[in-house]
Design goal:
By secondary structure, the chain is of the alpha/beta class. It is about 40% helix and about 10% strand. The protein is built from 18 helices and 15 strands. The strands form four sheets. It has a seven-stranded mixed β-sheet, with helices on both faces. Strands 12-13-15-14 form a four-stranded antiparallel β-sheet, with helices on one face. A two-stranded antiparallel sheet has the order 1-2. Helix 11 links the parallel strand 9 and strand 10. Helix 1 crosses helix 3 and helix 8 packs parallel to helix 9. The radius of gyration is 33 Å and the shape is elongated.
C-alpha cells in the first residue's frame, strides 16, 4: 500500500502540515501499520504524492529521527527503527497476588505503626488538649509588623547565614537573665522545631547501640528521635523530684531530662538532684540534654536556674522552643551546645537541612529586641496561672470524689489521677468520644506503665471553656449522659475555639 494513502493532511488545520504529518507517521508506527525496518519513500517522492513542499516532509522526518523513530542518512531513504514493536508493546500484566508486597523499611520505621505519637485522635481541635499556647492572646498585629519589617530588610542581608546573629544575641541575653544559661551567641543554633533539635543531637552524638536514658513517663518525641539513630533507649523512673539516678548502672551515652518542669508530671528537680545528675555524666563520654520546653511559665515561685548554668564541664545541651511561649504557628526551636560541639553541629545542621526560616528569625529578633516577647510572656504567666487554678477548682468541685489533681508550680497542663487507682485508657476513650481531649498518663510510659492518670491542658482554653469541659467530664465519668460533643465545622483553628466556647457555654 502506498504510504500517502494512509495519510490525511488538512490544509485548514491550525496545527500545520508538518505537525500533522509528524503526528500521523508516529501514530502509524505506534499502531504497527508501519513496522520496524520498513523503508519510507524519499522526501521528494512523498512530497509529490501528498502535494506538499519537500521542506514539510523533510522537517517531519528530522523530528521523527530526533525522537528515535527513524534512521536517516544523506542520499538514503528513511528507515524505521528496529525497536518500534518493543517500544510500543503492551506490558504483560503481572500475576495478581493475594496480598501486596510490603515496602522495604528500616527497623525503626517498621515500629512506627505500633506507636501512637502523635496521637491518632488529634485531627480535631478540642479541649483539654495539653501542650498548647492560646493563640488568641498573642499580639498578632505586632508580630505582623515584625514580619513585614523583616521582609523589607531581607533584601539587604546576607542570606547564606542560617543562624541569624540578631536572634542568637537576643536569645543569649534572654536566656542568661531569665534562665541562668551561660553561653556565647555562637553556641546557639536556630532550628525549625525542638524536635529538629533532638534529631540533630541524635545524629551527631549517638552511635547505633548506644545507651540513652530518658524519663519514664516522659516526652515521646525524645525517645523517637534517639531510637531513629539506633540508640538503646532506657526509661528511668521518677520520684517526687523527677528523674531518679541509676547509681549502679553504667553511664550511658546520653541522658534526656526536663528538670525545670518534668513532662508530663510537672515536677521540679532540686539543685541537689541536678548536681547528682551532672556527676553521673562523665565529661567527653556522657551528654545531658536539658529540654526546657515551657520554662517560661512558673507561677508560684521564681524558676530554678537551668541545669546548663550549673555545668562547668561542657556536658549539657540545652534546648527550647518559641511554640509554647508564643503560638504554635511560630515553629522555631533553639539549641545551646557546648563550645566544643558548636562548629560540628552547625555543619551537621546544614547537611541535615534542619534550617529555620531566616525571615521568621529576623522577625523574632526584632520582636524580642523591642520587648514584645518578654511582655507577652509576663502577661501569659498571669493568664495561665488563673486558668490552672480554675481547672483545679473545677475538678475538685465536680470530680472531687473521682479524681485528685496534682497542681504543678508551672507549665501548661496538669495530671489528675483516679482515687481508686483505676486504669486510664478506658476513661480516655470515653472522654475523647464525648468531645473532651485528654491523654492517658500510661501512654507516655517507655516500658510497662506504672502510673495512670489523665493529662489535662489548661493554657489554650479560657475559663468558660474549661468549666464546660469539666462538666462534660463529670457527666461522662459518673455514667451520666455526656454534654454536647464538639464537632468543628470548618478548618480554622480560632473559629473552632469560638464555636466550642459558644456551644459549651450552654452547659455552664
Amino acid at each position: 500500500m502506498i504510504l500517502a494513502e494512509l495519510l490525511a493532511l488538512k490544509r485548514t488545520d491550525d496545527a500545520g502540515l508538518t505537525a500533522q504529518l509528524t503526528q500521523q507517521l508516529r501514530a502509524l508506527m505506534a499502531s504497527g501499520r508501519i513496522r520496524s525496518g520498513a523503508v519510507l519513500p524519499s522526501s521528494r517522492t512523498l512530497s509529490a504524492e501528498l502535494d506538499v513542499s519537500r521542506n514539510t516532509v523533510m522537517h517531519a522526518f528530522e523530528q521523527l529521527a530526533a525522537e528515535g523513530y527513524l534512521r536517516v542518512a544523506a542520499r538514503r531513504r528513511p528507515v524505521v527503527s528496529d525497536d518500534i514493536e518493543a517500544r510500543f508493546a503492551k506490558p504483560v500484566a503481572a500475576p495478581r497476588r493475594e496480598t501486596a508486597r510490603k515496602p522495604l523499611l528500616s527497623p525503626w520505621a517498621l515500629q512506627l505503626s505500633d506507636t501512637d505519637w502523635p496521637l491518632s485522635y488529634q485531627a480535631k481541635f478540642r479541649p483539654l488538649r495539653s501542650g498548647l499556647a492560646d493563640a488568641r492572646e498573642f499580639p498578632h498585629d505586632i508580630w505582623a509588623r515584625c514580619l513585614r519589617r523583616s521582609a523589607l530588610r531581607r533584601r539587604f542581608n546576607d542570606q547564606t547565614v542560617i543562624n541569624r546573629p540578631g536572634l542568637r544575641e537576643a536569645l543569649r541575653d534572654y536566656l542568661e537573665v531569665n534562665r541562668g544559661v551561660r553561653a556565647e551567641a555562637e553556641q546557639i543554633l536556630i532550628l525549625p522545631t525542638a524536635q529538629a533539635a533532638l534529631t540533630l543531637i541524635a545524629a551527631t552524638v549517638i552511635t547505633p547501640g548506644d545507651a540513652v536514658w530518658t524519663e519514664d513517663p516522659g516526652y515521646p518525641g525524645a525517645a523517637a528521635a534517639f531510637r531513629a539513630a539506633g540508640a538503646d533507649v532506657v526509661g528511668v523512673r521518677l520520684d517526687q523530684w523527677g528523674m531518679m539516678r541509676m547509681r549502679e548502672a553504667r553511664a550511658p551515652r546520653l541522658i534526656f531530662t526536663t528538670p525545670s518542669h518534668q513532662h508530663p508530671t510537672g515536677r521540679v528537680m532540686p539543685v541537689a538532684r541536678r548536681t547528682e545528675l551532672l556527676a553521673a555524666a562523665e565529661p567527653g563520654k556522657t551528654w545531658i540534654v536539658e529540654d526546657d520546653y515551657d520554662g517560661e511559665f512558673h507561677y508560684d515561685s521564681r524558676p530554678m536556674p537551668a541545669l546548663q548554668g550549673l555545668d562547668r564541664e561542657g556536658r549539657v545541651l540545652y534546648l527550647g522552643t518559641f511554640a509554647k511561649a508564643t503560638t504554635a504557628d511560630i515553629r522555631i526551636g533553639y539549641l545551646v551546645v557546648p563550645p566544643q560541639l558548636a562548629r560540628t553541629m552547625e555543619i551537621a545542621q546544614r547537611h541535615l537541612g534542619l534550617i529555620a526560616s531566616v525571615h521568621v528569625q529576623e522577625a523574632l529578633a526584632g520582636f524580642m529586641a523591642d520587648g514584645h516577647f518578654l511582655a507577652h510572656v509576663r502577661r501569659m504567666r498571669r493568664i495561665y496561672r488563673a486558668r490552672r487554678d480554675h481547672l483545679a477548682a473545677a475538678l475538685a468541685r465536680l470530680l472531687g470524689g473521682v479524681l485528685v489533681a496534682e497542681v504543678p508550680p508551672g507549665g501548661m497542663q496538669l495530671i489528675a489521677r483516679f482515687k481508686d487507682g483505676a486504669p486510664d485508657q478506658n476513661a480516655v476513650s470515653r472522654l475523647v468520644a464525648a468531645g473532651v481531649e485528654v491523654r492517658a498518663l500510661s501512654s507516655l510510659a517507655l516500658q510497662r506503665p506504672r502510673d495512670h492518670g489523665l493529662l489535662l491542658g489548661f493554657a489554650a482554653w479560657r475559663e468558660n471553656e474549661i468549666a464546660a469541659a469539666v462538666r462534660i467530664m463529670a457527666n461522662c465519668l459518673s455514667g451520666k449522659r455526656a454534654g454536647p460533643k464538639w464537632q468543628p465545622g470548618g478548618s480554622d483553628e480560632h473559629a473552632h475555639r469560638g464555636e466550642f466556647s459558644r456551644r459549651l457555654a450552654k452547659n455552664l
